[in-house]
Design goal:
Blueprint (H helix, E strand, L loop, with lengths): L15 H12 L2 H9 L3 H11 L5 H11 L4 H19 L9 H24 L4 H13 L4 H14 L4 H10 L8 H14 L7 H13 L3 H9 L1 H13 L12 H15 L2 H11 L5 H4 L5 H15 L4
Helix pairs in contact: 1-2, 4-5, 5-6, 5-7, 6-7, 7-8, 7-9, 8-9, 10-11, 11-13, 11-14, 14-15, 15-17
């Protein structure tokens, strides 16, 4: 086997627009930032806003723009995402019993501020899917319930019915851990994939749903799930309709979509089936996909090595 590539979590190496966006944020160049982001298709625009929201300098830049023009949808979505990132940093990713009351108090305070600002933003820009994407995140963090989350997702889908970032967030909302059910989760993923054009990345929703189902089980149930041939058939069909379809391209989001199949086949123990997906993403480690693990890079590397060995890739 040839020497393994140096792994990276910097997806700007895959998407030039993220490198340009990061430069605009670091330069404090709002004009360049707006030109880069608002010129993208809706789902890519939301992904770029999400990426910028994780860059520390974005907060002050977006805050100034919101104060200058509360009707600026881009600025509101950016500031909302920055506040959401900040809130979750306070809460941490630990289970609730390991989070202090002070952490929860600050978490809800920050999210509440984001929610109030985003309510105003949605009134000004009701057709901006990035704003509704952020409001799906605040709804989950503030535990506003399934009905309210569905209302927000429906508003997003009115503007962009195949908005994958929003669909992924809503899929999380209807997982059992947030008050949904496995049946609802699978039904939504399959319906979203079926409604999208062939070659679209929505097939990865099916892979994500099966991952959420598997990790939600324990013991014998989890073992039985790994052996279920219906799971393999659904994954095969989802991949054929999306990431393996001739129309599937390398637009923004392709790394995450392919990585979800590498992840689900790895945790199912089908390492040989995971191999071509690892080969496709190369050295790109998506933290949004592999971030379920304490060390995403190490986990990716371990699974990739096993997949390449068992898949006969040399």
């Amino acid at each position: 086997m040839p020497a393994a590539p140096v792994l990276t979590t910097d997806l700007a190496t895959a998407y030039r627009e993220l490198s340009d966006l990061r430069a605009a944020v670091l330069d404090g160049d709002w004009v360049a930032l707006r030109r880069l982001v608002d010129g993208q298709p809706p789902a890519t625009r939301t992904e770029m806003i999400s990426y910028a929201g994780s860059l520390p300098p974005t907060m002050a830049l977006a805050q100034c723009q919101v104060e200058a023009d509360p009707a600026d949808g881009l600025a509101a979505a950016l500031l909302g995402k920055c506040l959401i990132v900040k809130a979750w940093e306070v809460r941490t990713g630990y289970q609730a019993q390991h989070v202090s009351q002070n952490q929860f108090r600050e978490f809800h305070q920050i999210l509440g501020g984001a929610e109030r600002m985003l309510i105003d933003a949605a009134a000004y820009q009701p057709g901006d899917p990035a704003i509704w994407y952020c409001r799906l995140l605040t709804a989950r963090g503030l535990e506003l319930g399934q009905a309210e989350a569905r209302r927000r997702y429906d508003r997003l889908a009115e503007s962009d019915p195949h908005h994958l970032p929003g669909q992924l967030q809503y899929l999380q909302q209807i997982c059992p851990k947030w008050g949904g059910s496995f049946d609802e989760m699978h039904s939504f993923a399959w319906a979203a994939m079926s409604a999208a054009p062939e070659g679209a990345a929505q097939g990865s929703l099916v892979a994500q749903a099966h991952y959420e189902h598997l990790i939600g089980l324990e013991g014998r149930q989890q073992d039985d799930y790994r052996k279920d041939l219906r799971v393999r058939e659904e994954l095969r069909e989802a991949a054929a309709r999306s990431v393996l379809h001739p129309a599937f391209g390398t637009e923004h989001g392709w790394v995450d979509a392919v990585s979800r199949f590498a992840l689900i086949y790895s945790v199912l123990g089908d390492h040989a089936l995971a191999a071509p997906y690892f080969a496709a993403v190369g050295n790109l480690v998506s933290e949004s996909v592999w971030g379920y693990f304490n060390d995403p890079v190490e986990t990716f590397d371990d699974f990739r090595r096993e997949a390449m060995t068992k898949g006969g890739w040399r």
